[in-house]
Amino acid sequence: MKRLIFSCFFLLSIFIINGQNYYNFPVSNTIWNIYLHNVWYNTNTETTRYTFTSEDTVINNQIYSKLFSIEDDTIMNQSNSEYFAAFREDSTKRVYFILNNDTNEILLYDFSLDIGDSIHYNYRFYEGVLFEQNNHYKVLESIDSININGSFRKKFTFSGSYPGITWVEGIGAIDGEGLFAPIAHILTGGEVYHLACVKDSNTIVYLNNPICAKCFCSILTNIGMLVFKKEINVYPNPTDRAFKIDFSGIDGTVLRLYTNDLKLVKEFEIVDEKQIIVNQKLSKGLYFLVINDKLDNHYVKKIVIK
User: 94 Cβ partners below 8 Å, 6+ apart?
Assistant: First the structure.
C-alpha cells in the first residue's frame, strides 16, 4: 500500500512538472526589489530596484525590453530611474541582456535545460559593471514545481557557483540578488545582496523580505511600480502656505500628505471632490502628496514649501 501511494505521488509530480504551462520571462511591468544584508551588524537595507515598464529598443535588428534601475529612493517611478540594460527572450526559452554601457549580449538564463545540462558564463556582474571571469558554470540537478498564486511553475535547482542556483520560470533566480544572481560577483566583505520580492503587473509573485511583510517597506516604496505624477496638478508649487490640488483625472478615495521623512501630516477622505485646497502652516521643505484610487493605484506629487 505504501509503495502504491508513493508511486501515485511520483506520477502526479511528473504530471504537474511536465503538464504545466511555460511562464515567459517578464519583460514588462515587473519590478525586482533587492536588499543588502550586513553580516557583521546583522542589518538589512533596501537598495536597488530593477523594473521593466513597456519601453522597447532595437539593437542589431532584435527587439529588446528596457530595464530601468533605481537606488536608495523612496519612490519607484521611471522619472527617478535610469535606463540600465536591454533584455530579450528567444523562442528557445533563453534570456539575454545587454548593459546600457556595453555592447556584449550575455546569456543570463536558459529555461530549456534538462537535468544534467550545464550553463557556462564568461562574465561576472558587480554594481552595474561586467568583467571577464571565464569558466564559471552551473549544472542542473533537479526540476521541481512550485505553487505561486495558485499556479505551478517549474523550479530549477543547480549545483555550481553560488548564488543564482535556484531559478523559477517567469521570475528568474530567487536566491542571491535575484535578477542578475547567476553572474553576480560574490562579496567577501560581510555584505550580501538578497532578493526581497518580485512584483509582476502589481501582483506579488515572490516575497522574502526580512524587513517587513511587504514587497516595499517604506510608505512610498510600498506603492511599487504603480506611481504616477502627471495626473495631479498642484499650484502654486513651490508655495509658502496655501495650495490647490487638482486630481480631476483620478477616481480618488483618500489623499495623504507626508513629510520628506515619511511622517503623515494630513489625511483627506475623498468623496466626490476633484479639487482640494490645503491652507495649513507647514515647515519649509519637501513634501509628498499621495492619492489612492479605487483600484489601489497610487499617485504621487512632490510639493515644495518655501
Answer: 107, 109, 110, 111, 112
**DSSP per residue over 29-53, as a string?**
SEEEEEEEEETTTTEEEEEEEEEEE
- Do residues 306 and 238 touch, judged by C-beta distance below 8 A? yes
CB atoms within 10 A of CB 221: 20
In the block, cell 495631479 appears at: 232
| Full-model pTM | 0.68
What integer pLDDT is reported at residue 5 of this predicted model?
47
| Domain annotation for the chain: domains and CATH numbers | 21-221 (no CATH), 227-305 (2.60.40.2470)
Which pLDDT value is given to residue 133?
A: 76
Residue reference for cell 504530471: 15
Sheet containing 151-160, strands listed edge to edge, beginning at the edge strand earlier in sequence: 118-126, 129-148, 151-160, 166-168, 172-173
CA dihedral for 275, 281, 286, 287, sign (positive or negative): negative
The dihedral through the CA atoms of 242, 245, 246, 251 has a sign that is negative
pLDDT, one tens digit per residue, over 224-282 is 434 444 568 888 888 888 888 888 877 777 888 888 766 788 888 887 778 888 888 88
Distance of alpha carbon 297 from alpha carbon 17, whole angstroms: 35
Q: pLDDT tens-digit profile of 227-243?
A: 444 568 888 888 888 88
| Identity of residue 228 | F
| DSSP 8-state secondary structure symbol assigned to residue 5 | H
